[in-house]
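To whoever is on call:

I kicked off a structure prediction for a single chain this morning and the downstream step that reads the tokens threw a length-mismatch warning. I double-checked the sequence; it's 581 residues and nothing unusual in it as far as I can see. Pasting both halves so you can look.
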Amino acid sequence: MQTTIIRNGTYFDGLGNKGVQKDVVIKDNKIDAVLEKAPTIEGAKEIDASGKWITPGLLDIHAHYDAELEVMPALEESVRHGVTTVIIGNCSLSAALGKDTEIVDLFARVENIPAKVLSHWMLGNIKWKSVSEYYQHLDTVPVGPNIASFLGHSNLRMHVMGLERSFTEKTASEEELKKMEAIVEEAVQAGYLGVSIDMLPFHRWAGVYSPKFTGYSVPSQLAAKSEYKRLSNVLRKHNRVLQITPNAVDKTSFATILRLSQGGFFKKSLKTTIVAALDLKSNEKIYNLLKLLGFIGNDILRANMKFQTLSVPFLNYGDGPVSPLFEEFPSMIKAISSDAAGRKAMFTNPEFRKQFVKEWNHKAASVFPKALKEMWIVKSPDASHIGKNFEQVAKDAGVEPVEHFMNLLAEHDTNIRWKCETSNHRESVRMELLTSKHCFPGFNDSGAHNLNMAFHDGGLQLLKQALHHPELMPIETAIHRITKEPADFLGIDAGDISVGKRADLIIIDPTRLESDLNTDPVEDYHPSFEGSYRLIKRSGKVVQHVFINGIEAFTNNGVVGFHEDLGKKKIFGQLLRSNWN
């Protein structure tokens, strides 16, 4: 195998130590040496990293590539941004258990991936029958970055209780609970990171193959708190991790999470990672509650909780009435569950319109800001709409804004596309969250909501902000926060490029962080998306080289491209099993 020498770069080991100028030698897939001046080695490839940073590959703590990796295992859209390890199985959704049709229905609406695309990827392709067999399968997939996974609780519930009972019965029987515990134990022994649970009612069933439950919240949300507790205790015993999505409009869900993580004064705490800490436009005081919960939970009550927080403003796109942001409105749940003709009938029906206005103007807690002046039109059959917000368009038409919004939805349905920044809009608050000891930078949702958002460059965006605020977060700290720190919490061997470690590293041009990361997502019509598209990000020439398992997977310095074997041969990423006992 070829030896590579990276010379004259500023080397960050991922452990939080300051960068120093070093030469790094990669040999036999590992970091062979880190030297002041490496000797010349016959036949070695040399890279001049003068003025560049040499860092561990970035760790994406929250991805939904579970389906995509089955057909596009290179996961190029993460690799090109310097990510060498991704975590899947989040938000109670995974491919570890369940029928192929169930997995399509589970992912299609929650993650807004077209059902025809998911069906092409998954139907007839699931050969595994247990959590152990799924990990055996993942061990054979020629993935680009390393992967590790949670076991999705919604899948677990459907598998044990059956589809009908998982949606209709809050309380599982004692026999069913014991079976769930046994499967979680099996997953732990196989090396899963833990279990992911979902309390957010906006995550709903697509109903493509099981239409009876169309629009229902996914099964994990129905479970009794005692069920969460039983599964959490299995994880606590083995020092594994609980990933949980709280109910964003029900503050009591945070108390439930605190009790699960703390476990009582006579039990050890349970490592818990929570989606997500966001500075909401709809309630700019909510982040104070998250800070308070972190302080009381971790510092006073000895819990072990880490909120996931996004490193950029939370920019979302929607197609007419179809958007995950609208899943909290009962009228829009019906609209999203219908087809174009059904929605047109709804938005021209006086009773439906009256109900929509009532929900839009309701003062109850809401994640979506419900501000038409902040919803900007990016595509419309009427070109005069483009570049304006819905309030401006209504003013031009001389019609009350919410009424005109419904008129446009009735007329254009999903042909009118808009974007809205819903949270993380205040830089000072964002930095407060990103630097908090109670948070992990992350929540990129890579591979999810492909029509609605793209945060594949989240790690690079964190580094950019660290350059802006060195007094709050030195670069070595920022690198540690998206490499070794989360890897240690999750219990996986990643994020460290000390001598002897697996050579998952990247070379970054820091002078490009300011100039090359200021782009909105772009539409990518990848052949595997069956004529649909996904939103992706580009980061210019920030990332110059990406090494995974000691092999250069991506080059962006002069010649740009991926290694010809990336996603084809199992020589790059590995399945990383938890090393906690």
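Update from on-call: the warning came from a stale cache, not from the record. Cleared it. Sanity check on the structure: The chain has a mean pLDDT of 95.
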